[in-house]
Design brief:
Elements (H helix, E strand, L loop, with lengths): L3 E3 L1 H15 L3 H20 L16 E4 L6 E6 L5 E8 L4 H8 L19 H4 L2
Helix pairs in contact: 1-2
């Protein structure tokens, strides 16, 4: 049994990133995929290894940068069993802007303290 699981969104993220990388190199895309699963296994064994991002969320999720691909981070829930990888994100993404746009911050609607609601579906975050 795996010590971690990927959400449907995380699986989609991995596939989308792989598809973008494979345009240039199949070998690089495969190395990226391997690095993702190695990082997932690492955080499953060391769930507190990542760091929190209070500028993005008050939720107890953690962010882990891939050592071999430092432009990518996995977002995971260290308290779940097995550890749940929620998203795989590229560092160039403006997460604060993305979250605000996704949940209508510019239009004045609140988001219950979550700037990176791209991390979890809104229904899971709002009581």
């Amino acid at each position: 049994m795996s010590r971690y699981e990927l959400t449907a969104q995380a699986k989609e993220d991995v596939l989308t990133i792989w598809e973008n990388i494979v345009r240039d190199s199949l070998q690089a895309a495969d190395r990226f995929e391997t690095a993702i699963y190695e990082a997932c296994n690492f955080v499953a064994l060391n769930p507190l290894a990542g760091h929190s991002r209070s500028n993005l969320t008050r939720l107890p999720v953690r962010f882990w940068t891939l050592p071999r691909f430092p432009n990518y981070q996995i977002v995971y829930d260290p308290d779940s069993q097995p550890v749940t990888v929620i998203r795989v994100l590229h560092g160039a993404q403006d997460l604060v802007r993305l979250a605000k746009a996704r949940h209508g911050i510019e239009s004045g609607r609140g988001m219950n303290g979550l700037a990176a609601s791209c991390v979890y579906p809104l229904r899971e975050l709002v009581p």
